[in-house]
Amino acid sequence: EVMRAIRKALKADGTWLTGFELKTEIGVHGPKELHFVLVDNGRSEMREDPAFREALSCIRCGACSNVCPSYQVVGGHVFGHIYTGPIGLVVSPFHHGIDTVANEQAMCMGCNACDTVCPVEIPLAALINDVRAKAVERTGMSWTKRIGLSQWTDPERIDRTTGLLSTLQRPLKRGLLIRIPFLPLGKEKSLPAVADRPLHYRAREITQTNPASPVMRIGLFPSCIVDHFLPNAGYSAARVLQALGADVHLVEGRRCCGLPHLNSGDRANARSMAKDAIAALEKVQADRIVAPSSSCAITMSDDYVRLFADDPEWRARAMRLAARIRPFTTIAHELAKGSDIRGRALDLRATYHDACQSANVLGIHDQPRELLRRIAGVHVVEMSDSAVCCGFGGTFSFEWPEVATPILEKKLANIAATGADVVITDNPGCLTHIRGGLDARGRTPKVRHLAEVLWDSLAPDT
Q: 275 vs 269, 314, 400, CA distance in Å?
């Protein structure tokens, strides 16, 4: 009888009436008056949104909070409203307005750990990104961040910005890093230096070393960070793929995929940059387009499709591109499986940091370790929580050092416990963050990209 009465209180389309009392005469010991108050509280709006509708499946288990690195530092209600943690960032805007998480949504580093444990498979990381875009639209972005991102929207601006940074860094440059001890951030980590010679300067050199009878044609999309800050990692990736039988050409070397803008809620620039990248990469004649940055590979294969959910033409183009995108680790492992190529055994005691997106989105874990053992004879000592975020999160570590630093400290402690001489990873962001943290603390382990270690083993004797 109660359920029949409740059903009468529903609208014809199945949504709840908002703010009413329901009365019926029932009771265990005879007729009584029973009151029900059904509160919609924004749930109907969520139900009508194709993306956020999935968040209504939440069973409030708290699993997403348990694995969230930021939540472990800030805890409590800092990371949401009544609903806390990652799910709180998703549902609170509907229950209490976007202002309730306009600041807190920045606590998400985009590690995607919450997606891996949600028992009802809510795409929390993507929805938090959508909330961030809504928050930026509502409350804006700091002028410093907006100016910074605006200088990273096309290859010409990136070249001008890195050229200026190259000049400014000279008094502070120390090898591959910049130390800025007079700033609070400088005490926590050293910053990557702009390379004297970006990777795209070596495009012809890479082409000239291609094998005569390739098994695959690859367009190497290095990402702007690899091109300007870690060119040796990009060069090593190209040479490793060539050694494994692939024909490799550097493509769109100076272009940014738009990941920093997308993660910062700057959807206008992210969409524009995604269209430019899709249009440019559509012209590349290759079987696969490979990125030595797993985060960039995910942006182009997953995020572009979601970004154009409301545009059928560009969504279709994004899906065609996605079918061709591969991260370096995956394609190198695929090529190595069909090859008996071995390099020189390297006398290294190494530990491997699984970049959170490589592990949580791409499911990469065994592949890099197998490559290191089979090709380079590297002894890998496992660290605790190898797939837990290092605290980088793109611009997160610069905007929220008080949260990022404790996360980094845990990662550095786990590295130290292994006694490893080298830390290996396949993500440029993690590489620069961990390297900078170790340098600022005067610790000795080197941090290298997977491709660099493999190329050390495969490179011919000189």
A: 10, 8, 30
